[in-house]
Design the sequence.
């Protein structure tokens, strides 16, 4: 018996190899949603893809999009009181910062798409041709 570490992600197979088809399509779906609604919070994106993707997986995909420069991440730096019936706050008190870290919560991180985000993602994906039955194939049974 051998103990192994298993990273459970939708785009990683059980044997530890990258399932590039799943990665490319989930990145495309998330980027398409971000392009339709610029300025969304990461928590809103995670809610949209909720049953299919866990929030941490969604955040990781958004960070991959940031790393390949498809999107830019910003965060709220001040904690202003929420508006209510008996409280008031000025909209001018909102401050944004570009120093987003992995410890920042999804509720304060804003995602802005770049102008040429689709072209950048297209270059990242490249000219891959997927086989029809690729999803059913495993490395030990190629045919």
Sequence:
């Amino acid at each position: 018996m051998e103990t192994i570490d298993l990273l459970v992600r939708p785009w990683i197979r059980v044997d530890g190899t990258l399932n590039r088809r799943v990665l490319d399509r989930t990145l495309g779906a998330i980027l398409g949603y971000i392009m339709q609604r610029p300025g969304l919070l990461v928590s809103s994106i995670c809610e949209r893809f909720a049953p299919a993707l866990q929030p941490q997986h969604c955040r990781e995909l958004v960070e991959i999009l940031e790393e390949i420069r498809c999107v830019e991440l910003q965060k709220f730096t001040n904690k202003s009181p929420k508006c209510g019936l008996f409280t008031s706050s000025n909209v001018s008190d909102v401050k944004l910062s570009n120093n987003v870290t992995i410890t920042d919560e999804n509720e304060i991180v804003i995602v802005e798409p770049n102008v040429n985000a689709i072209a950048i993602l297209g270059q990242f994906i490249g000219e891959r041709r997927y086989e029809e039955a690729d999803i059913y194939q495993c490395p030990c049974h190629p045919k």
